Structure formats: C-alpha cells, structure tokens
Amino acid sequence: MRLVFAGTPEFARVALAALSQAGHEILAVFTQPDRPKGRGLDVVQSPVKQEALRLGVNVLQPQSLRQGRPGAEEAKAALRTLGPDLMVVAAYGLILPADVLATPRYGCLNIHASLLPRWRGAAPIQRAIAAGDLQTGVALMQMEEGLDTGPVWSMSTTEIQPEDNFQTLHDRLAEIGARELVALLANFPASGKSPQPQAAEGVVYAHKIEKEDLRIDWSKSSREVADQIRAFDPVPGALASIGSLQIKCFDPKVVSTDLKNPVCGQIIQADRDGFLVACGSGTVSIGAAQKPGGKRLGFREFLNGRPVTAGQCFDLVKE
C-alpha cells in the first residue's frame, strides 16, 4: 500500500520499520519537531525521524496541524499531493483535524497500546500497570475526531506479568502492534470486513502523566505501591522523599513481612540489597534508586555518602 506514517517515539519507530520491511511504500513521515533533551539540552531527533532518514523517506515536522497554526496548511497540502491510500498513526502526539483524517483514501489507522475502550488517551501503558491490570494489549483503530473513540479493526491481548515495568511492557506491545499492523495491511480492507464500534461500557481515560502521579503513596498496599513504581520504571521514575532528599525508586518487589503496628513509609531495612519499606499493608523492597539528575544505582553505590538509615520515614503524600 501507499502509506503516510505519523509517529514520534520508539513505540512508533518499531511499526514504521515493520511496514517498510513488509514492502509497503512509505511516501512520507510526519513526526514532531526536533526538541532539546537531557541535561545538556542538545536538540534531538525523534526515533521515528531517525528511522525515516535511515529509510530515505521524506520527513515533515509541523508544530501543529490545526487550522491557522504555522506550517499546518503547508503540511496538509503536502499530504493531499501525496495522495496516500492510508495514514498510519502511532503515538504521534498531535491532534489530527477532520480534513487530515479525510485525506487518505482509506482514512487514518491508529495503533493504540490498550484494549479499548479501556485506557483511551495519552499514557495507556503506565496507567494499566499502575492500576494493577492483569492484561492489556494493542488495538488497531480507525480514527475519527473523538479521543480514541473510533471503531476497532483488531485487538491483541498480552498478560501483564508481576515483573513487568513500563519498559518491558512497552517493548512487547510495540512488537505486537507492528506484527498485527502488518498482518492487517496485507489485505486491506479485506472484503466483507469492517471495523467494529467500541463497547459503550468500560471507558477509562489514560490521562497524561503529571508530577503528582510520580509521588509514592506509602499508605497504599504493598502491591499498589509496587505497581506504581513499576509503571514509571525506568522513566520518569516514581518519587519518594525524606525532607529535602528526593529519591527515584525502581525494581520493586512485594515482600511477605508481617509487621506489628507498621508506620507507613518507614524504612525497615537499608543496606546494599536495597530498602525495605512499610506500606499501608505489607512491605515493598526497592532494588535500585536514583537521585534526580543522577544515575540509577544499586544500593551499595547509592548509600555511599547519603544519610539514609533504617528507622527513617519517607514523607507521606499530602492530600
């Protein structure tokens, strides 16, 4: 098929590479503008742009596609000139207005990392882990103007394992999405098949991750705390604090420890094996940590020069 691809992060890059390898003609790639990143604020190309350049595909980077915004009309004109059969969208990060959705012959197809209608929105992978979901998946959805409301061509399910964190689940879903996309487009649209409307029940929104979402609530159960930490491991990192000292926590494990009169957030153990912390019920071990702006470290290295000892308490989240 003659495709235009729109995406920005690594999740989308995997799909773009798979489409090219499957023999589809990639007419152009839309991705977000290059932006400064990291402590040095070096301008970085998105993973999708890097893949497009490797493939020798023309790259378009409008700041917006909304009417009246700088560069929007030029990008839309380029899309009309290309005349694609289909536009494939994966974690692009920009809203596609109605005129863009209507330009390709078969419209726009979105790869969404959840089992719709659960976790519509910006952060479905993190929200699924943090909520303690036992499974998630990938939906291939025909796009319409609503937020992830379009009819679904196919859904594929995967279990969320107790050891999964954001990175491992992200990588698995990216591979599933790419594989299912290639399978769907091998004969698209298949005779007699059409996308099915989403269920009216079970709608949940995966809102954008905010800073308050990262603060660990030690008053919750050890399972809920571990899920919260896993959802933001390795980035951006769930946050705990002792006074002015902030710590990003990683590699959590629920520990069967029966404590009498536990104090939420109290560090029961602090040694080279990690922290053992009391929660609202149960305890959780933290296997790695990082000071914001520093490197992720095992606890032998992390505790060097840092006054964190057993008996101290992490600050509780204020309502």
Question: In words, what does this structure look like?
Answer:
- This protein is of the alpha/beta class and 319 residues long.
- The chain folds into two domains: 2-206, Formyl transferase, N-terminal domain (Rossmann fold); 211-302, Roll (Methionyl-tRNA Fmet Formyltransferase, Chain A, domain 2).
- The chain is built from nine helices and 17 strands.
- The protein has helices spanning 10-21, 47-55, 72-82, 98-101, 124-130, 166-185, 211-214, 222-231, 299-302; strands spanning 2-7, 25-30, 35-37, 42-44, 59-60, 86-90, 108-112, 118-121, 135-142, 152-159, 204-206, 238-242, 245-255, 267-271, 274-278, 283-290, 297-298.
- 39% of the residues are buried.
The structure class reads alpha/beta
Count every helix, treating DSSP H or I runs of 4 or more residues as helices. 9
Spatial sequence of strands, sheet with the most strands: 5-2-1-6-7-9-10
Mean pLDDT across all amino acids: 94
Portion in strands: 25-35%
Please give the number of β-strands. 17
CA-CA gap between termini: 53 Å
Summarize the structure.
With 319 residues, the chain is α/β, with parallel strands linked by helices. The chain has helices at 10-21, 47-55, 72-82, 98-101, 124-130, 166-185, 211-214, 222-231, 299-302, and strands spanning 2-7, 25-30, 35-37, 42-44, 59-60, 86-90, 108-112, 118-121, 135-142, 152-159, 204-206, 238-242, 245-255, 267-271, 274-278, 283-290, 297-298.
